[in-house]
Each structure stands twice: as structure tokens, then as C-alpha cells.
Write the C-alpha cells for this entry.
Amino acid sequence: MRRPVFAANWKMNNGPTAARAFIAAFAARWAPRDDRSVIFFPPALAVSAVVHALGSRTDLAVGVQNIWTEDKGAFSGENSAPIAKDAGARFVLVGHSERRHVFGETNAETARKCAASARNGLTPILCVGELLTQREAGETNDVVLKQLHVGLGRLTPDIVSSMAIAYEPVWAIGTGKTATPDDAANVHAVLRHALRGVVGVASESIPILYGGSVSAANAGALLAATGVDGLLVGGASLEVESWLVICAAG
Ligand code: PGA
């Protein structure tokens, strides 16, 4: 049985001051639970503030929403895996749909970012998901499998079996249109089968999260869908109340 993962992707919201206040309010009402993992993905400039606000709450983890492919050098404006690690991050979102579709990130770049995370001891969470036009054209499985195989292409089996995957249909992100639990279960099954092909039985340890308009109202049903091992949440992770409800789901 995989331990469910609840990941808050704050996107470009919550600077250091708001992040500290959020963590203080959340941590005061969230008792440590060893049956699930809770991870915060603040903007990079708020990572240190979140780490400090968490203090001794080692049950709550922090990650970054993106890194660059190289470890250091002349890449103005970017953050590297060693910098993220130094700031206290343990996880990296790689290939989030906004990185792919707003900033033009390619599958090849996601592979290099997964590799950069791994060689610096950070755990990548590789995000995959199809556009509405691709879903309507019946290309969902082909799209997510290509994203998965290329994205994992530079990783050792050990790393693959210790990371996580997130399925986020692009048409469901921030739109209020959620995949049905059946839609999610179908794609999760395809991904699970593919992961078995990549690393065999070791793939059983890899959580596959669902993301896309998850809310306090639908979190329970999505988490109950077959093969959904956690939730990656944007908008509904910005309110302490809804995030508390989501983290307690299942
Ligand atoms: P949303 O975002 O929950 O606001 O749809 C999810 C995500 O982009 O990770």
C-alpha cells in the first residue's frame, strides 16, 4: 500500500510573508500523521521562509516548482537543484503543465531536470498530462506515455522507483473542470503499467498523483479512484481551510 501524497502547488502565489502566515495557521491545526505525506511547493523565493516556519515539523516537506537543468553557471533568473537543496527543498516538480505550455518546456528538458534533481539528492515529481485537443483526438495515452518515457529516460531504476508521477490533464488545471474519477483511474492504470515496464515490481512504490481542479468537495472521490495515490493541488491549496480538508481526505 502506497502512502498517499498531498502536494500543494502554490504557483506564483504567497511570498515569504504570506507563506509564513499560511504555514503557521496550517501547522497549528494539522497534527503529524504517518499515513500520508504533505508537501508544499511555494515560489522559490519563499522556500526558505517555509522551511523556517516549519521548524521542527519534519512531517511536512518542501519542494520547488521548477529548476534549471544545470547545477550552476551563467543562467540568470534560474534556480538549480543544489540551490534548491541548500534552501531546504527535498522535492522538485518537473514538467508542470504551465512549464510546458506557458514556458515551452520540452520532454527532453524534463528529462534533464529530473536528472539534475536526482544527482543532487532531490526527489523529482514528473508531471504529465494531455491538452483538450489531444484528449478529443484520442491521443491521451500516447501523449502521457511519451512524456513519461522521455522524462524518465536519464534516470536509474533506483531513482525511478523512489520518485513520484503526477497526472494532470491540462484541460482540468485551474478551469474548475475535473477529470472524473474514472477518467483519472484509466490514465493512472496506463501509467502504472508503463512504470512496471520501466522498473518492474519496484514500480509498486511509485505514487501516481492526480491534479487538476481538486477541491475540498471532490478530493475524497478522486483519491478513492483506483490507482490514485495522492493529489497535486493548485488553487484549493491556497486556503488553509480547504487545504486542511484535502489533506485529511481518504
Ligand atoms: P489547480 O492546479 O488545482 O488550480 O487546477 C493544479 C496544478 O496545476 O498543479
Observations:
- Residues 9, 168, 173-174, 211-214, 232-236 surround 2-phosphoglycolic acid (CB under 6 Å).
